[in-house]
Each structure stands twice: as C-alpha cells, then as structure tokens.
C-alpha cells in the first residue's frame, strides 16, 4: 500500500497523531502535498530552519521557529471544514522536552474534534511513553520497481541511453533498495561514465550505501562452484530450489538453508559462490552490528536491515555465525534484546514474501534456540563435515593451481579442512617453502577444538542432511571420515 493510500485511510479514520517513518522525508512531504491538493485538505509544514509555513496562505511563514511555538500555533488555527495537516520534519529530535510532550498531547485531544492532524516525518520511530498510545505509525517504503523504472526513464531521455528487455531488468534489479535520491544519483553516474544505464555503476553506489549503514555489505565477486571443492548435495539442492519454474504455484517459494559445520569447511565460500552461480547479489548481514546501546535500537536496526534486504530482491542473504548474536535469546544477560531480535528475525523468515534466499551458518549449535531450527524456517538443515579424501584431493589441486605451486609431495592431511589446505598452500608460496615444511605451521581446528568438533558431529548425526551426498548425515567414529565409495548413493536433485 502506498503512502498516500495509508495516509488517506488514517486521516479518514480520525487518528490525530500520525508518525511516518521514512528514509526520504522530503519525498514523503511531496506526496503529502499532492494528496492534500487532490483532497482539498489544508497542509502546514514546520522544520527547524524554515519555521511554520501554511500552504495556500500566500506563502506566508508564521513566527514559530521553535517546536513548542509550532504546536501552539497549530492549536490557535481556526477550525476548517476539511482536515488540516501539520507536517513536522525530524521532530523526534525535540521530544525530550516535557513541556512539548504535554502540548502535543493536548493538541491531539483537541485535533480529533477539529480535524487537525499532527504528522511527524522521521527516519526512526522514537516516541516518549506518554505519546505511544496517541500516534499511529505508518511506513514510507523504498521505491518499487515500477517507480525506479519511471526515474530511469525521466533521466535517460536520449536515444540509446535507456536499455530495454533483460538489460533494463538488470539495471532495475541493481537499483532495488536505493532511495529515490540515491537511484537518481546512480543513474546519473552511469550516464556520465558509460553514456547509458548500466548495472555496474549502480552496484557501486549500492555497495557504498550498504557499507555506510554498518548493517549490511554487498558481495559481487568471481567465486563459483568450480572454485569450491565437494558439497555436491548442497550445491544441487540450492540450485534446484532457486531454479525458475513457470508452473510453480505462487505460494511455493524458496526460503533458504541452515548450514552447520566445523569452522573452515566452506560455509561462507558457498554463500558467495551461490550468488555468482545464480546471478544474484550476496548480501551479508552483520548480526553483531545490530546490537545497539539504546533501548529499542537493536530492534530498530534489525527492522531497517530487513527492510533494505526485501527491497533488494532477488538476492542471497548471508547471516554468518548466527549463534553469536542470537545465542543469548533467553534474555537473562541482555535485558531481552536478543529475544526481541530473534522474534523479529523469525517473524520475517516466516512472513516475508520477497525473493530472498537465506543462508544462515553456525558453528556452535548448542547456543542456537530450538525455534530457530524448526521445520519451515529453512528448506534444509545441512551439516558440513571435514572433507573426505576425494574432496581434499580436489581442494589441493585447486589451490596448488591458484598459488602457482609445482606438483610435489602432499603433506599428511588427516582431519584438515579446506581452509587449512588453503593456508598451507598460501604459506608455501609466501615463505618459499615446500608443502611439507609449510604443513608444520598448520594446526587443524579438529585438533585445537577436538572436543567441540566431535560434539558437533555427534549432534548432527541423524539430525542434518549431508552436504556431500543425498540423505541424512551419519557420523562414524573414526580418525578420518571416508569419502563416498563409487557405489554410494549420489545426489539426485535433478
């Protein structure tokens, strides 16, 4: 539902206090002005710079430069036959005053009878306790695909500047999640740099925008499944889940996968390579950055981050080491912050309708709340074990080629992960050592954290799907996991 539709319903319902949460207050104000013009409503505005301004009053500004004077001036306005709206820009910064809060409370009681509506436009919702029950909060969403297309068409007016068909689709996909102002800047940069709208410049702007937020980061690398050894069953499962099908019912959509495993087994690398394989950007959510010091800040950051993610569809959302932020969900050590963050995330996982495929990883399953792992949160729960001998041979060959190391005797690699094989090859190239010498500098995580690794493997046995071959993962108590024999069942997702 658009902002004008929400605002129309709210005014006609008689809510005298309206809080509009928006990343673009000026754009929201323009939509309000157009609505008031169409409905023949009166519109007044106030900000700390321009003061109180009543539209249609010959552009006259009333002497009300401070917030309290603005509210009092609105109170003294004569009643009209049509609704009158006062738009207060970034007013949340002034609500620490008890006198102002009281004046707003009186105005809302009076305004309900006189068709006067206080509308606060701000990037966040920060209501004092006294006003929480008096305001209705509505959201000004980021521009949709059709609106981005209109912006693109308004800027790319010369022949050849505006692409068509699939090329235009890629441009609009790249612009998803940007504000109108950011989209205009990205499109303009592309026109200046390349003479037409191309996705590369737009992705650059988007990456900078996400980095500034401190909550999300955008990855668009060259990783692919060819650079990731093993994990055959997991690869086949995800590719099939993300394969477009015209005959698929609209209610059937992919949710994502939960990856449990030993550190260094390729969980993060898989998330990045899946994005490359499917032509989707990989968005990384920093769960640690969601935690804020102020009351309600963590929940607000979580909501904001998920809103941006929804607007960037289709995409891969990567949540790494979720247990570090959600492991305190009992609420005993953080005043319930983790519990509320978990609730927001679970609600979104269940209810979101955007084309977002979630890849969530964890190294310590004991710290994850049970409700996070139940059915229908994810399409599959996979366990990534230490690679078998066949997988390690492929990983060795890949990194020997990458680091330009001549063929030589391989070191003993019992219980090594792919990350440890890569570290060995990198050290050999860096220090000009043989692989045998470099291996002496490597202590595998299966040794340093033997107890934790063994507990994780035992827990996953019979509970998780195997990332290597179809079916449930089964742990055999051996010093080295055997690779599948030629007669073992192979992935059959096709």
What key attributes describe this structure?
494 residues, Rossmann fold, seven-stranded mixed β-sheet, alpha/beta, 4 domains, 18 helices
Overview of the structural elements:
The protein is of the alpha/beta class and 494 residues long. The chain has helices at 3-13, 25-39, 67-75, 98-114, 145-155, 166-175, 180-194, 199-213, 232-241, 267-278, 297-311, 323-326, 337-351, 389-402, 418-431, 435-439, 445-448, 450-460, and strands at residues 17-21, 42-47, 51-54, 61-62, 84-89, 116-122, 136-139, 216-219, 256-261, 282-285, 315-319, 356-362, 380-384, 465-466. Residues 329-333 and 479-494 have low confidence and may be disordered. Helices cover 42% and strands 14% of the residues. The strands form 2 sheets. It has a 7-stranded mixed beta sheet, sandwiched between helices. A 7-stranded mixed beta sheet has the order 8-10-11-12-9-13-14, sandwiched between helices. The longest helix is centred in the first third of the chain and has 17 residues, at 98-114. The protein folds into 4 domains: 3-139, Rossmann fold (3-Layer(aba) Sandwich); 151-212; 225-244 and 252-383, P-loop containing nucleotide triphosphate hydrolases (Rossmann fold), CATH 3.40.50.300; 389-448, no CATH class.
């Amino acid at each position: 539902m658009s902002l004008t539709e929400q605002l129309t319903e709210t005014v006609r319902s008689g809510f005298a206090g309206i809080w509009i949460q928006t990343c673009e207050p000026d754009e929201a104000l323009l939509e309000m002005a157009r609505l008031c013009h169409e409905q023949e409503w009166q519109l007044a505005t106030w900000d700390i710079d321009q003061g109180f301004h009543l539209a249609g009053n010959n552009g006259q500004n009333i002497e009300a430069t401070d917030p309290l004077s603005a509210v009092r001036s609105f109170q003294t306005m004569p009643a009209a036959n049509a609704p009158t709206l006062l738009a207060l820009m970034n007013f949340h910064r002034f609500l620490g005053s008890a006198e102002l809060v009281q004046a707003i409370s009186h105005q809302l009681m009076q305004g309900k009878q006189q068709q006067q509506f206080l509308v606060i436009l701000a990037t966040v919702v920060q209501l004092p306790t006294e006003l929480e029950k008096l305001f209705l909060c509505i959201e000004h969403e980021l521009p949709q695909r059709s609106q981005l297309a209109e912006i693109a068409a308004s800027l790319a007016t010369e022949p050849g500047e505006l692409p068509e068909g699939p090329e235009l689709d890629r441009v609009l996909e790249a612009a998803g999640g940007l504000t109108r102002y950011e989209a205009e800047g990205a499109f303009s940069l592309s026109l200046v740099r390349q003479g037409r709208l191309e996705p590369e410049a737009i992705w650059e702007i988007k990456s900078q925008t996400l980095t500034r937020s401190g909550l999300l980061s955008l990855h668009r690398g060259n990783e692919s499944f060819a650079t990731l050894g093993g994990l055959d069953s997991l690869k086949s499962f995800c590719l099939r889940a993300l394969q477009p099908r015209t005959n698929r019912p609209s209610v059937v959509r992919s949710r994502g996968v939960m990856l449990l495993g030993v550190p260094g087994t390729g969980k993060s690398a898989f998330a990045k390579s899946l994005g490359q394989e499917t032509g989707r950007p990989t968005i990384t959510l920093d769960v640690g950055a969601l935690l804020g010091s102020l009351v309600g800040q963590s929940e607000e950051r979580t909501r904001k981050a998920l809103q941006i993610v929804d607007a960037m569809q289709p995409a891969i959302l990567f949540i790494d080491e979720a247990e570090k932020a959600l492991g305190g969900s009992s609420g005993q050590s953080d005043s319930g912050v983790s519990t509320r963050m978990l609730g927001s995330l679970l609600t979104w996982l269940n209810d979101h309708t955007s084309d977002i495929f979630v890849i969530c990883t964890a190294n310590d399953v004991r710290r994850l709340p049970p409700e996070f792992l139940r059915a229908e949160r994810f399409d599959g729960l996979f366990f990534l074990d230490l690679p078998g001998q066949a997988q390690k041979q492929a990983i060795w060959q890949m990194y020997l080629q990458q680091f330009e190391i001549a063929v030589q005797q391989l070191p003993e690699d019992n219980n090594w992960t792919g990350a440890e094989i890569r570290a060995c090859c990198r050290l050999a190239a860096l220090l000009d050592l043989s692989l045998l010498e470099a291996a002496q500098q490597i202590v595998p995580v299966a040794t340093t954290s033997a107890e934790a690794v063994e507990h994780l493997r035992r827990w996953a046995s019979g509970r998780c799907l195997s990332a290597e071959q179809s079916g449930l993962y089964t742990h055999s108590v051996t010093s080295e996991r055997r690779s599948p024999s030629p007669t073992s069942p192979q992935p059959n997702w096709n």
